[in-house]
Amino acid sequence: MLSQAIKPHAMQVKGSAKMHRFANPTRFLRLVSAIKPWATGVCLLTFAAGLYFALFASPPDYQQRETVRIMYVHVPAAWMAMFCYAALAAASASALIWRHLVADMVARATAPIGAAFTLLALATGSLWGKPMWGTWWVWDARLTSVLILFFLYLGYIVLNGAFDDASRGARAASILAVVGAINIPIIKFSVDWWNTLHQPASVVKLDGPAIHMSMLTPLLLMAIAYTSFYIWILAIRVRAEINTSKIRALQIRRVTASDVPWNDS
Questions:
Q1: Where do the structural domains in the chain lie, given as residue ranges?
Q2: Contact, 149 vs 84, CB < 8 A?
C-alpha cells in the first residue's frame, strides 16, 4: 500500500521536474527554436486558407448578409484574447510560486500580444455591432468584461515598468494577472448569466456546434492561424527577452568588475 501511495507522488515529482527543466533559459531557447518554424508555417498556411474560405467560399448570412464576414476576424480574436490572458495568468502564477525567470519572460512577452488581440476583438465587435444593433457600443456584460480584460492587459504592462526595482514591478504585475483571471469565466459565461444583446455560444456547446460547416471551417482555420501566430510572435519576443537579460547581466558584471580596486601587493 505504501508503494502504491508513493508511485503517484513519484510520477508527479517526475512530471514537475520535466516542466522545471524549461526554467533554464538555454533549454527554453532550444525548445523555442524547434517550435518557431512550425508555428510560422502553420500560421501562414491556415491564415491564407482561412481568408479564402471566409471571403469567397463561405456564404453570406440570410439576415446579416456580407457583414457576417467580420465574424471570421472578430470571434477568433476574442478567443485569443482570453487564451492569451489564461497563458499570462498561468505564467505569472509560476513566476510567483517557483520564481521561474523564463515564466516571467513568457508573461511579459504575452501581454502585448494579448492586448492586441483584445483591441482587435473590441474594434471588430464595434464594426459588427453597428449594422446589427444600430450602435457602435452597448454596455452589456460581454462587451464590458472584454473591455475590462483590455485594461487588465494594460495594467500588467504599466506595472511591469512602474518601479525602479524590476523585480518589484514584475511581482506586482504578476499578482494583478493572477487576480484578474477571475474575469475569464465572467467573459465566457456572461451571456448565460445575464440578459445581454450579445449572442450565446454557437461553436463550443455540449450538443455540438450550432453553426453550419461552411461557416465553421473558416472560423476554425482562423483560430488555428491566430494561435500559431501567437506562438510565433511569443517565440520571437521570449528570445529577445532572454538575450536582453543576458546583455544586462554582462553589463552588471563589467560594472562590478571595474569597481573592484586593484591590489598591487
A1: 37-202+211-231
A2: no
Q: Which residues pair with 61 in a beta bridge?
A: 65
Q: Which residue, 248, 250, 245, 253, is CA-closest to 101?
A: 245
Q: Report how far residue 190's alpha carbon sits from residue 54's, in angstroms, rounded to the nearest whole number.
A: 27
What does the pLDDT profile of the chain (265 residues) look like in tens digits?
444 544 544 444 454 455 556 567 788 888 888 999 999 999 999 999 999 999 888 888 777 778 888 999 999 999 999 999 999 999 999 999 988 889 999 999 999 999 999 999 999 999 888 887 788 888 888 899 999 999 999 999 999 988 888 889 999 999 999 999 999 999 988 877 766 666 665 555 544 555 778 888 999 999 999 999 999 999 999 999 888 888 877 887 887 776 655 555 4
CA–CA distance, 44 with 49 (Å, rounded to integer):
9
Question: 79 is written with which cell numbers?
Answer: 478567443
- C-alpha 232/C-alpha 219 separation (Å) is 20
Nearest to 139 by CA among 197, 79, 75: 197
Long-range CB contact pairs, 185-189, < 8 A, 24+ = 186/141, 186/145, 187/82, 187/142, 187/145, 187/146, 187/149, 188/82
Residue where the block lists cell 512577452: 109
Whether the full predicted model's pTM is greater than 0.85, yes or no, is no
